Prior knowledge:
The chain is of the alpha/beta class. About 40% of the residues lie in helices and about 25% in strands.
Amino acid sequence: xxxxxxxxxxxxxxxxxxxxxxxxxxxxxxxxxxxxxxxxxxxxxxxxxxxxxxxxxxxxxxxxxxxxxxxxxxxxxxxxxxxxxxxxxxxxxxxxxxxxxxxxxxxxxxxxxxxxxxxxxxxxxxxxxxxxxxxxxxxxxxxxxxxxxxxxxxxxxxxxxxxxxxxxxxxxxxxxxxxxxxxxxxxxxxxxxxxxxxxxxxxxxxxxxxxxxxxxxxxxxxxxxxxxxxxxxxxxxxxxxxxxxxxxxxxxxxxxxxxxxxxxxxxxxxxxxxxxxxxxxxxxxxxxxxxxxxxxxxxxxxxxxxxxxxxxxxxxxxxxxxxxxxxxxxxxxxxxxxxxxxxxxxxxxxxxxxxxxxxxxxxxxxxxxxxxxxxxxxxx
Length: 380
């Protein structure tokens, strides 16, 4: 049964924060999000989220890109299913993206639309997204605490532990000597059942990354994420993997099924982390997640944004199964927490997957309305 889109709504939000979120490549001074709603001619709807963390003006840009540059490809058009929408939009926007060189924004808008369409399709069947993708999907998934600044890790890990987490990921890539010293100290504070990972956010050259893994070789890090730029030479990634006893992780900045096939085939990564808001949405990343699992690698979806993307990532992980963990940014974010992703539970270490249709989202929370910076609608 084809899907004819009759209405599209998109809203960009931006929330000021008292403590900026720092990475090795830049600082987020507020928390943005872009939420999209699609509706078919029968009135069935679905929700998605578009990546908006970078650049600083990215949220409003992507929302307007959807409305002003892609609306003609969507409204009143019929699609067989979500993969058909994904493939059609990717093909039809190729020259537009080539003309302006903005491959990322177009991919991210398509990813958000893909998630919304998958939500719509699942809602039509009365199933949760997780069970729409895999009938044997898990009813909950384990989480890890992410976004932890290495300089504040003692306090942030303690707070995360109190919230129910037993796995943590700290951001490194600022000062090599300080980072490695602080990491070593953190392991002295962990319980036996706790895990610590590190994320360099593409900070280092090959020589610097090799220095880090040599210095930290005796530390039982769960993984080292993006120690090199995602587009570093394959030989550099291979050299680092050969040099490291720490599993390497990456994927949030890999795009395309071919890109992930290459990443899987190199044997470099122990953990792969596609981000549904940056490329692929639910349907594209579902294909990739299955390939990762079939290759015997660990699938841990990357996500750092609002509530819709987090909930969708949890459904995808529940469908994929395995020993993966759901990334949960522990920095304050009203655009996530307003959705009550844990449904009132105080324990954040496990994420519940309810059986309600689709992603279980009907309307946006009223409390985020004051933070809207752009909102638009297209309809027949």
